[in-house]
Amino acid sequence: MKYDFNRIIDRRNTRSYKWDQTEKLFGDKEILPLWVADMDFESPPAVQEAILRRIQEGIYGYSVANDSYKEAIAGWYRRRHDWEIQKEWIMDSPGIVTSLSLSVELFSKPGDQVILQPPVYYPFYDVIRMNDRKVAVNPLKLEEGHYVMDYAQLEELMAGGARLLLLCSPHNPGGRVWEREELLRLGELCLRYGVTVISDEIHCDLAMPGHKHIPFASLSAELSDITLTTLAATKTFNLPGLQTSYIVTSNPDLKRKFEYKLKALSLHMSAFFTPEAVEAAYNEGGEWLDELIQHISGNVEYALDYLGEHLPQVKPMRPEATYLLWIDCRALGLDAAGLKQLMYREAKVAFNEGSVFGTEGQGHLRINLACPRAILAEALERFSTAAAPYVK
What we know:
Strand content: 5-15%
Mean pLDDT: 97
Structural class: alpha/beta
Distance between the termini: 43 Å
Strand order of the largest sheet: 2-10-9-8-7-3-4
Order of helices and strands: HEHHEHEHEEEHEHEHEHEHHHEEHEEEH
Helix content: 40-55%
């Protein structure tokens, strides 16, 4: 492979949220952090070079994104996802969660129900509740080792008045890549009941071999017209510190409302390094991403094999996308506090404790696999050894 994803890079003392907060967050600076979703890999060389060129200009003034930036975005989705995006559909936002929160504020009213499908990325709850809306829970069902949607219960929520849905695609933490038939069935319900869809597709580029992400808005013109898709290069190319994302919608009314709100909050200006970094990533980062996916896929197999041999009582869910592994640890008989005690005090590792993804996540853990194999191996060994006494 051209890129070495097994090289260990010391990120301590770099203002890293992931590595420099372990003592503050978990009580011990020796804890191995495999929790927050950033990667322990350098971004593609083309991205680093683009940022360095920008730095060397020496003047860091107000900036705008030009057409080549949006052309790079559109070209990426055409090549990688068979989705034809018009440049006019794209608008920038500081981050995915910002886009989710503004969407809830703009496309629902205080007291309205907003649908989410737990267990799900925990800021989904925050952007609903902190905007004075009500969480309408459509729990995913576990079938044959992975999550599926409960369409009957979903229709009940829509029939009961819920008109906004936060879709997580691919799913975090379960790693599902929703299939075309699943999305079409969801779309049919949304069209029938007049539901607007805010589709968080930040993990779309990280589908594992044998799986293909389908953008919800790409399914039909009718579904595109009711959808606002939140996207970013940050998960794909390890750029979260640049604080950048973008929104895609073909509906001019949705776009107009969103752009107005961004301007009202003065969030409409282009970040200085973002256009160059994103453009370089999308135009020159394809080979790097292909090798990254091979590495992540290898880490998935390693983790499944290791846990199957050393701690078979826990049940990992094989991810179809993302670099996140969702593990059912209920056989250990521990509540949320007990799992934290096991991780932080006994195993000296930090995974995500599952109840933050909703009550449906209780007894589960989420592990970030985007690290060198040696770090993953040490974390799994620590956890399995510490968990052994809890096995009944």
